[in-house]
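Handout, section 4.2: multi-component inputs.
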Amino acid sequence: MSISKMTNQSKLAKEFVETGRLSSLPFIDMHTHMGPFYGTYLPEASLESMIRTMDRENIEWIISAPHSALFDPLEGNSEIKPAMEKYPDRIYGYYVVNPHYDHNLDQDLAEFDRVKGYVGIKLLPDYHKYPLTGEKFRKIYEFANDRGLLLLSHTWGHSPYNPPQMIGELARKYENITFLLGHSAPGETDYGIELARTQPNVYLELCDTGRLNGMIGKMVHEATSEKVVFGTDFPWYDPNYMLGSVLFSGISDEEISHIIHHNAVRLLHKARNLK
Amino acid sequence: MMKIIDCSCAVGYKTVNYEIVNHENFIVREKVKQARDAEELLQELDFCGIDSAVVSHNTMADVDPDYGNRAVLAETNKAPDRLLPTWTILPPITESQYAPKHLFPAMKANGVQLLRAYPERNRYLLNGVVMGDLIGEIAAAKIPLYLTPSEGWHSIYSLMKEYPTLTVILHNYGLWSHARLTYPLFQTYKNLYIESGDMQTAGEIKDICSKFGSERILFGSNFPSNAIGGPLAALIGSGITKDQMENIAYKNLERLLGEVTR
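Output:
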């Protein structure tokens, strides 16, 4: 298939438009979940349907925090482990911390080291109603800093729990953690972009915010394509939707490649080697 | 070469750049790259290979419908073969120019075939008591009416119940899946359509096609809230058949426009 008169000169965009798929370069999603969720109907929520979508769309691998891990304090983190065991090169995991239920934290962190696929920590402060800078997270940050892990946190502009300013404070204190600004702090993306530009261990993550017209171009222009990573909340959002936002953002194919693939590979290697 | 019509683009600047119905289904203010005029919108369309677009003007909501309705014509008249204007309606009981006997001839004279309503924004209720015979006449003329549930789902449900033959295009519905709210409407009202701009949910296009048919989705971006490339790639990579894709890309909208009788 092709569409007429497209002035976008990206070869990757042309390939996608003509074939419905980016076969020449797989892409990587660093912000995903798994399983059903109370507030929304997700046709492709199961592990196996996610794998089928990944195959169809040429998604090389993902890092996931299942919804159960986000919201069930008792059994949540158990769901990701069989998924990583079954698809060890396709699915990596974020360990999710709920600060209201941290009584088994030492035991859980010890298990983190034994589970091969874990590469980072996922925090969801707006939903858990506990601030990123709260004392209950200190042990988590020290653990992640010792191991050079990824830390993906939900961020939101003007939030009392996870504004980008708190990420900045933590990133300066814990320089060995790679902080991924989940959603890039919508409402305060200018602050998030400046933080990513100036703080070496802070990265912008595209989930939802990347769809806004002109946003990806601004991120790349101001913070460089090496500080932007691809994420979608998949299976909430179709990774192809965000891929299109990147392919049609007006940046070069080299910059596109950094965002959809190369940055993720580099950051994963760092997290796994240090771990 | 597949033709593509974007059924939902806005031109002009918002008073506040920009209020987005975001992925948590509430408003967030975040700057976007807007199209000041038709020339800038056409550049955006060309960049993505879009043939034509249905256009609203941001001043319809931010200043006044009459003001915005004039402004959109000033822009679409620069490229009438590619830009299709829509107008925003008001209750004829206060603004008599929106009574069918005045509105429909004006629409015909200006090439307007689609309408939109923002009852919350304009402080009225979209029902027969308020609107008189206007909605019934719009339904009879098969004029598509754009509505956004960002102003509430209950009003859309009650409107469809009162006017079950009304042709409605849902737009700007936010990014948490709308399925539990729209699927019952798809099932009950055959003239209910949805624009695809906010349709980010994985597998959703295919799911709607399999349950209700590809005839119910119109390709649209909700530009500039969304960059056009996102919904474009979601459609092209959706895994549906070529016939289904063509329905969504342009045939459904052309069919709807062909059915308008005024």
